[in-house]
What does this fold into?
Amino acid sequence: MTWSFETDPEFAAELEWVDRFVREKIEPIDQLVPDPYDVADPLRNELFKPLQQEVKDRKLWACHLGPELGGPGYGQLKLALLNEILGRSRSAPTVFGTQAPDTGNAEILAHFGTEGQKERYLAPLLDGQIVSCFSMTEPQGGADPEVFTTKATRDGDCWVINGEKWYSSNARHAAFLIVMAITSPDAEYHRRFSMFIVPSETPGIDIIRHVGHTPGVDGSHGYVRYTDVRVPADHVLGGEGEAFAIAQTRLGGGRIHHAMRTVGLVQKSLDLLCRRALSRVTKGERLADKQSVQHAIAHSWAELESFRLLVLRTAWKIDRYQDYSRVRGDISAVKALMPKLLNDVASRALHLHGSIGVSSEMPFLEYIYEAFTMGLVDGPTEVHEGVLARAVLRNYKADEDVFPPYHLPLLREQAEAAHQDVLLRHAAAAGRPEGHGEASR
Ligand SMILES: Cc1cc2nc3c(=O)[nH]c(=O)nc-3n(C[C@H](O)[C@H](O)[C@H](O)COP(=O)(O)OP(=O)(O)OC[C@H]3O[C@@H](n4cnc5c(N)ncnc54)[C@H](O)[C@@H]3O)c2cc1C
It folds into this structure.
């Protein structure tokens, strides 16, 4: 039996390097680069490229990938330890080649793509030359694919896509979009959809709006209309009718990677909370000396550490089983817990900073927005709570009797029957009639 909470010294040294690199070189440029996904931004490229090269030279590029795809193949546990450092910074995942949604898109291209698809789309994606988009959610619903209406119909050696997609992140910067569309309307739900690789220059793709969260400012999520978009038949990803299975493969990894990075953002919120508590004095004492502030710090620390352990154990299970279906409940548990944890700790940090905390001169509102985002991307919290509950319930069965086998009177009756001789001896020794006193309480 092994049971260890230690990082091997060689990898711990790498993590120390990453921590310094992120704090000293990447976090500062978060202030200068508005959109890490904008591969056409010359400032972004000038600042990112040398850092990306340093990461590649250090053999830490694209750590989510196995050696066959150009990554070091560290596995999910080491990736978790790395990602929790990268989670501190908006730009860090892109500098390390581990940014969503490209990681998930790369994963499905690697799993399901043909050699031709891999050469044309996967190779430049893995190298960081391009970014990609996953276009699945529709305006009328995201959590339930039953309501999707985007269709693809076969026309000669092409498929023709028509429909609208909503919140397609980075559609404006993407070199290609992976679009989920109905190809067999009468098939059962799980076989109804196919996944298409659509090059962004294909005629008929119209980004109606760039949706975001700041009024009057273009965001990075495309409201995309596809009108008679023709893609060659060899641009189906996986087989016809396989979109559902592909989406599940993609989302399993994506969810746990978000959780790993969220550990980093919660840790950063707690760091800032503690620094403020030690620095600010009111009514003659530091905030840190006030009991309510200590309460906030203690709860934040304990909640973060419990969440982190669950994320690490889930990552360990993925490495051990190599089968996402065996950890679906675990992944849903971290997915459901992460928005509340981030919201709670970032809100406490904001509150403790007072007026400056609520202003745009501090990052806390951005973190709280991120918390709400984490409750929606890759499925709303309630859906994951349902998945987890069903996984837990599979370990139980219904009791048939109205008074169940754990009804206390029944348990007492059974215990008395099993230990009747002992009870009688004790009752006799105490001079009590049978059935009275301590033993029968
Ligand atoms: C920042 C961000 C980035 C995103 N990026 C992408 C992307 O790149 N590509 C893409 O395709 N999509 C993307 N999405 C969309 C995301 O996948 C959806 O928001 C999500 O699936 C929920 O769908 P919806 O927004 O239509 O909400 P709905 O499906 O309408 O759900 C709304 C609410 O209803 C409740 N609800 C829904 N289902 C259930 C249920 N079964 N039980 C109980 N309550 C329920 C929940 O409270 C839920 O929050 C992104 C979303 C965000 C916020």
